[in-house]
Amino acid sequence: MKTQSFKSFSGKITFALLILACCFGFTAISYGQAIISLQPATIAVPQVGKSFTVEVNIAGGKGMAGYQVAVAFDPTVVRYVSAADAGYLNSEVFAVPLLEAEQTTFVVAALGGTATKTLGTLATMTFEVLKPNPFRSLHLTEVILADADAEVMGVRFIQNNVNRAELTIPMPANHTSLMPNYPNPFNPETWIPYQLATPADVTLTIFSSDGQLVRTLALGHQPAGVYQHKTRAAYWDGRNDIGERVASGLYFYTLTAGDFAATGKMLILK
């Protein structure tokens, strides 16, 4: 198997999505068919200064022609080293690793044919241990599987326990909701997580306690999924629409996604 690989492009997740769209087309993600899990390649607990490898495993992936996998990590606990396709697609592949400060995304497209196996390993990722208990710092944040008919395949995540160190793998969203911002209180920045059951145009508006509009954040059209990690959640830097720092006090934020709308409150303390 030959693999065409490219160096990481920091902050270019949209480029990864573009590759999948060009190769297979792009539709809304459904859930409940293929099962994806993140597991260490060995049962040994890695020591500080050593490298370890995790596997992105799949069940029910027969007929798949490409995939995108995003794994978030704590850069104070582990350092990303590399990612590699594991040959599940049974053909030559086009592979692109994309690295951000706290997340690595790996995009792979088959250059011919589709997966013929039901069970197997999609990819491996290698990290260096900076602090103890490295498994806890890793979790899947997004998986997209595409078949040869330009359709996005159904997928769900499962949770694994290895060496008593739980790999935190969030379940896909089965309903749209707004979650509490973090940190709260904060100064000067905060993240506002949410989840989408279906793709939607997402907008976040921030108001002062007297109802005055402070900031509008147009997040664009977002696919279904959980937007909880700092690399995916809505971000507010504590400034208004003209770039001025806002005063300490109580503020309200409203998330609008299609027909859904919900409001939360947050506190700036300086």
How would you describe this protein?
There is one protein chain. With 270 residues, the chain is mainly beta. The protein is built from 1 helix and 22 strands. The strands form 6 sheets. It has a 6-stranded mixed sheet, with helices on one face. A hairpin with a 3-residue loop joins β6 and β7 (103-110). 34% of the residues are buried.
Defining key terms:
270 residues; mainly beta; six-stranded mixed beta sheet; five-stranded mixed beta sheet; 22 strands; 4% helix; globular; disordered N terminus
Alpha plus pi helix count: 1
Strand order of the largest sheet: 1-6-7-4-9-10
Strands, total number:
22
- The string of secondary-structure elements, in order, is EHEEEEEEEEEEEEEEEEEEEEE
Estimate the helix proportion, in percent.
under 10%
Overall pLDDT confidence: 78
Relative strand content? over 45%
Taking the sheet with the most strands, its summary is: 6 strands, mixed
Span of the ends, CA to CA: 57 Å
Shape: globular
Structural class: mainly beta
How many whole angstroms does the radius of gyration measure?
20 Å
Low-pLDDT segments, ≥5 res:
1-32, 159-171
Concise description?
With 270 residues, the protein is mainly beta. The chain contains 1 helix and 22 strands. The termini are far apart.
Write the layout of secondary structure elements.
Elements: E1 3-4, H1 13-24, E2 34-40, E3 51-59, E4 64-72, E5 78-85, E6 93-99, E7 103-110, E8 119-129, E9 139-147, E10 152-153, E11 155-157, E12 160-162, E13 165-167, E14 177-178, E15 190-192, E16 194-196, E17 200-208, E18 213-222, E19 225-227, E20 234-236, E21 249-257, E22 260-268
Parallel strand pairs: 1-6, 2-11
Antiparallel strand pairs: 2-3, 3-8, 4-7, 4-9, 5-8, 6-7, 9-10, 12-13, 14-16, 15-20, 16-19, 17-18, 17-21, 21-22
